[in-house]
């Protein structure tokens, strides 16, 4: 995320936490979609990672983007760590290993998303060209070890880096070596949120399968089609996963708040200082009993920042975040947003998607989630292949997008943005499998050609 929230209003009751989420409700005519994607930068001359400092480092890249776009810098301890578009709401931020992220503005349709993403990519390519920097379209850094990966100067990442090895074996790989694409979606009411959350949780492994694109680690195949997705299985089980409780009777805002309250914190931010309280309870901060900060009480910004450190497959804030997919090229990025927009923003498609998944048990959903990183579309659930389920889900999405009837300047509706995903599902071959074919064939056992063939 581009920056942590600053709102010092004290929280006086648990109901205020519930109201904070409920305040995200919007009427259908105000629904928007916000697409985020990360990408790994590298030096074209020698395929090495790009550090923060230096005449041609990440800082220089940010400064070049600021000059090109006019966006306002986001600073931390004198370091630019992002840019904010204060007019339209977009932002650029840095992930821990230098992954360059666009957090897109809330937009009305997928045509706008495609234009926004294309413009951003044109900008970073133009700035990157002057610095000799390119950007990979893979869901995981394919060549460098974790030790070779640079570290960005952000205090929250230092806290997370210290904490991650205490709660899982792969959290540092998640932070420093993976890249994702996600889309953020609105809801109209608590009931609408619950329905969308359940459908998107159940189908999130299907999205992971369709968009699997991270088969290499440390210069060789890692045994997975989406290693990025596999990494999340051993990152921090307290804050990740499929949230089986979301399918229980009575689930709603309050139940999500209670779960979030029990997820250990990373930090408390006061003014510009991040206080390391990793592992501590938000309930203690809420009650003024946090051992590391005696007498300090929770504020709205504490809650917003804490919720941003929860990483389930679908995250609820004041909107829903679809978190299951590896990043890919421009068509890949927009297709992910198209997949979810067609399903979640059309009532008939949403109803159809619920019919598709409602009979699945928690155990079946968990098994699919565990199998997809390695098998992708060849995984199965309830006697059906993930490919067959994906085909049905895409048909629902296509019909939903057609009913939205949002036309571009050429008179096309939004369905054409699904073509990339439909080609994958029809063939049954993911982008990761194409990469592996190249590795074992034309690339002669090297991942280095990816730095010229799979770039933005």
From TrEMBL:
Keyword Ribonucleoprotein set for record: no
Keywords: ATP-binding, Disulfide bond, Glutathione biosynthesis, Ligase, Nucleotide-binding, Transit peptide
Catalytic activity as recorded in UniProt: L-cysteine + L-glutamate + ATP = gamma-L-glutamyl-L-cysteine + ADP + phosphate + H(+)
Pathway note: Sulfur metabolism; glutathione biosynthesis; glutathione from L-cysteine and L-glutamate: step 1/2
Documented EC number(s): 6.3.2.2
Keyword Nucleotide-binding: yes
Molecular function GO labels: glutamate-cysteine ligase activity
InterPro entries, alphabetized: GCL_bact_plant, GCS2, Gln_synth/guanido_kin_cat_dom, Glut_cys_lig_pln_type
Described function: Catalyzes the synthesis of gamma-glutamylcysteine (gamma-GC).
Subunit structure: Homodimer or monomer when oxidized or reduced, respectively.
Cited NCBIfam families: glu_cys_lig_pln (TIGR01436)
Similarity section: Belongs to the carboxylate-amine ligase family. Glutamate--cysteine ligase type 2 subfamily.
Protein name: Glutamate--cysteine ligase
Protein's organism: Microvirga arabica
Lineage of producing organism: Bacteria, Pseudomonadati, Pseudomonadota, Alphaproteobacteria, Hyphomicrobiales
């Amino acid at each position: 995320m581009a920056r942590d929230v600053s709102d010092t209003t004290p929280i006086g009751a648990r109901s205020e936490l519930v109201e904070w989420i409920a305040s995200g409700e919007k009427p259908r005519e105000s629904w928007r979609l916000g697409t985020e994607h990360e990408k790994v930068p590298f030096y074209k001359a020698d395929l090495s990672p790009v550090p923060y400092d230096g005449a041609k480092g990440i800082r220089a890249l940010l400064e070049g983007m600021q000059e090109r776009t006019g966006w306002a810098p986001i600073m931390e301890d004198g370091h630019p760590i992002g840019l904010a578009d204060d007019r339209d709401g977009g932002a650029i931020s840095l992930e821990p290993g230098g992954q360059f992220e666009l957090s897109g503005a809330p937009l009305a349709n997928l045509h706008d998303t495609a234009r926004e993403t294309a413009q951003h990519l044109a900008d970073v390519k133009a700035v990157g060209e002057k610095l000799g920097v390119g950007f990979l379209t893979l869901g995981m850094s394919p060549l460098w070890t974790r030790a070779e990966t640079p570290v960005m100067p952000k205090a929250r990442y230092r806290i997370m880096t210290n904490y991650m090895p205490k709660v899982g074996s792969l959290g540092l790989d998640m932070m420093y070596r993976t890249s994702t694409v996600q889309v953020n979606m609105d809801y109209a009411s608590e009931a609408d949120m619950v329905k969308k959350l359940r459908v998107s949780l159940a189908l999130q492994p299907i999205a992971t399968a369709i968009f699997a694109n991270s088969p290499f680690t440390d210069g060789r195949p890692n045994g997975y089609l989406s290693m990025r997705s596999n990494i999340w299985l051993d990152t921090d089980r307290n804050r990740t996963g499929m949230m089986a409780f979301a399918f229980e009777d009575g689930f709603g805002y309050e139940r999500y708040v209670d779960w979030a309250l029990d997820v250990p914190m990373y930090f408390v931010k006061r003014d510009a200082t991040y206080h390391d309280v990793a592992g501590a309870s938000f309930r203690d901060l809420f009650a003024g009993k946090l051992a590391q900060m005696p007498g300090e009480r929770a504020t709205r910004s504490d809650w917003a920042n804490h919720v941003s450190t929860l990483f389930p497959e679908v995250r609820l804030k004041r909107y829903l975040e679809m978190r299951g997919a590896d990043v890919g090229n421009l068509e890949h990025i927009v297709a992910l947003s198209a997949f979810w927009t067609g399903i979640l923003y059309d009532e008939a498609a949403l109803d159809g998607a619920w019919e598709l998944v409602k009979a699945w048990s928690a155990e079946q959903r968990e098994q699919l989630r565990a199998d997809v990183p390695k098998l992708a579309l060849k995984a199965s659930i309830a006697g059906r292949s993930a490919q067959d389920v994906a085909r049905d889900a895409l048909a629902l999405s296509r019909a939903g997008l057609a009913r939205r009837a949002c036309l571009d300047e050429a008179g096309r509706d939004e369905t054409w943005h699904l073509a990339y995903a439909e080609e994958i599902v029809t063939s049954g071959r993911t982008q990761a499998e194409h990469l592996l074919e190249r590795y074992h064939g034309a690339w002669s056992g090297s991942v280095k050609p990816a730095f010229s063939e799979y770039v933005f």
